[in-house]
Structure formats: structure tokens, C-alpha cells
Automatic annotation (TrEMBL):
Domain AB hydrolase-1 per the UniProt entry, residue ranges: 42-271
Organism superkingdom: Bacteria
InterPro entries documented for this protein: AB_hydrolase (IPR050471), AB_hydrolase_1 (IPR000073), AB_hydrolase_fold (IPR029058)
Gene3D superfamilies: alpha/beta hydrolase
Keyword match Hydrolase: yes
PANTHER family per record: AB HYDROLASE-1 DOMAIN-CONTAINING PROTEIN (PTHR43433:SF5), HYDROLASE, ALPHA/BETA FOLD FAMILY PROTEIN (PTHR43433)
Protein's recorded name: Alpha/beta hydrolase
Record key words, sorted: Hydrolase
Keyword Transit peptide recorded: no
GO molecular-function terms, A-Z: hydrolase activity
Length: 289
């Protein structure tokens, strides 16, 4: 396993974080580490069709100034080998294998969209692993209209193709003047890393992820009242992909959770309002002692 050494300067810019690999259970996982060594790491769980390059540096960098941050590609995604499973629960098993391979016995979780579904399944499987939980732009198993994510995704990919835009500008942001500007700024930030960029996700891998999301949406709800981790939930108030009402549902079902809803934004509300959300996430996560 490759790890940062204490003699190396601490990297706190995601654009500069080196890509590493670790092999376990026949899969080579690609991941990046940054921030100060030691303590409980914050492991980031990324969204549908996303790779290591899809994390907003305006979210990652403020957290990495105080905490050890780890991002990774699930099997079959980006530079990781293996294949994408067709259930969220199997994705959680893969995430657990990766975390175990790095030797961490306790983590904090930052998750977005599909990543939030995987994070919930992971907590159900191994609750003692997770100390704090951040769920953004996501919803519970069996949640209203989650099984329609694929329809919305394909529709917006088509719209983006017609306008030669990035699909995330349609999927994550409102189509008003403010949302359009926020979407373009977000996509531009994702291009700040110019070297050692990740491989894009393959179409078949994305299609399998969408199948898993549909199964999640049609599955029997988990008992989230059993979650004891301090939990921060956030979304925009007009999420077309994972309806905003599901964030309220998560807040109601996870005892003691905090809820932040950003008015005038969609699925990517935390990216549009990164200047408000990132400090809130830093405060919530606290130190890694």
C-alpha cells in the first residue's frame, strides 16, 4: 500500500493530490489522499457517473486544510479495475474492502447523490466504522421517485448534447440565469487539475450504476432510526434528480440530524453555495482526533 510519508509536504489542494493505488480482493482501487496525516480520515463517496476528477475543489480543499481526506474510484469506475455491481449494497461491500485495505478502523463519511446511498448501506452493514456522516443530494432506500433518476439523467444528457454543454449543468443546476452561471463555474473548477487526470467512466458502467439506483429506489426502506452517528444532510430546494423532499425525509428518520437546504438551487446546491456549505461542513466534521 502506498501512503504519504511525514517527510513529504502536506498537500491541501485537490488539484495537486497524487493518485495512488491499493489492491484487494482482486481489484486495484485508484484513490487520492490529501490533508494532514493522522487521526480519523474523511472518506468521500462520489456521485453517479463520476470519477476522482468530479469532486469540487471548493468543497474538498477547505476540509483538507484540517482533516486527512481520501477520495476513491469504486470498482469498474475511472482508473479502478473490476466491474460495477448492480446493487448499492454490493457497492458498499466494495467500499468496505477498500477502507479495510487502507487499514482504517474509524472514518467520517462525506457523500453526494449515489455516494450517499452507498454510505447509508455501508452504515447499515458496519455502523461502528462511521463516526460522522454527511449526506448531500441523496435519499433513503425506497425513497419517492429515486427509481426515476435514469429517466432524468438520459433526458438531460440529450439536452446537454444539443447545446454542447456538460450534462452536469442541466442535472445539477437550475436553468435560470443564476443556475446557469453556477453550473458553468462548477464545471470550470473541475478542470483546475491539469495533470494525472482520471479516466472517464464508461457508458456501460454508468448504465449499471443507474440499474443499482433504480433497485435502491424500489427496495424496502432501511431502519434509519438505528443510525446513531451525528449526521449533516444538505441539498438544494429544487433537486430534479433526487427530489429535495427526500432530504427532509432523511432528516426526519435520522434522529438528531442537521438539515441545510439552499434556496434557488438544485441537485448541486452544495456546489452552487460552496461558500456557505464548505465552512458548515468543516464545522460539522470538526477534528479527526
Amino acid at each position: 500500500m502506498n501512503t504519504q510519508h511525514s517527510t513529504e509536504p502536506v498537500v491541501t489542494s485537490y488539484a495537486q493530490a497524487p493518485t495512488r493505488t491499493v489492491r484487494t480482493r482482486g481489484v486495484e482501487y485508484a484513490y487520492r489522499e490529501l490533508g494532514p496525516e493522522g487521526g480519523i480520515p474523511v472518506v468521500f463517496f462520489v456521485h453517479l457517473a463520476a470519477t476522482l476528477d468530479n469532486w469540487d475543489p471548493r468543497i474538498v480543499d477547505p476540509i483538507a486544510r484540517h482533516r486527512h481526506v481520501i477520495t476513491f474510484d469504486q470498482p469498474g469506475v475511472g482508473a479502478s479495475t473490476g466491474t460495477v455491481p448492480d446493487t448499492v449494497e454490493a457497492m458498499a461491500d466494495d467500499a468496505l474492502a477498500f477502507i479495510d485495505a487502507l487499514g482504517h478502523e474509524k472514518i467520517d463519511v462525506f457523500s453526494f447523490s449515489l455516494g450517499g446511498m452507498i454510505a447509508q448501506a455501508l452504515v447499515v452493514k458496519r455502523p461502528e466504522l462511521v463516526r460522522k456522516l454527511v449526506l448531500t443530494g441523496t435519499g433513503p432506500k425506497g425513497g419517492k421517485d429515486i427509481d426515476k433518476v435514469g429517466r432524468t439523467t438520459y433526458y438531460d444528457i440529450a439536452r446537454a448534447t444539443l447545446t454542447r454543454s456538460d450534462p452536469k449543468e442541466f442535472l445539477f443546476f437550475n436553468r435560470d440565469a443564476t443556475g446557469r452561471a453556477a453550473g458553468k463555474a462548477f464545471v470550470k473548477r473541475l478542470e483546475e487539475r491539469t495533470e494525472d487526470r482520471d479516466a472517464p467512466i464508461k457508458l456501460r458502467a454508468m448504465q449499471t450504476q443507474l440499474k443499482a439506483i433504480k433497485r435502491w429506489g424500489r427496495g424496502a426502506p432501511a431502519d434509519l432510526s438505528a443510525f446513531t452517528q451525528p449526521t449533516l444532510i444538505a441539498n438544494g430546494d429544487n433537486d430534479r434528480m433526487v427530489p429535495s423532499v427526500l432530504s427532509t425525509d432523511l432528516h426526519r428518520r435520522i434522529k438528531g440530524s442537521e438539515l441545510a437546504v439552499y434556496a434557488g438551487s438544485g441537485h448541486g446546491g452544495i456546489f452552487q453555495f460552496h461558500d456557505e456549505f464548505a465552512p458548515a461542513a468543516v464545522r460539522f466534521l470538526g477534528g479527526g482526533e
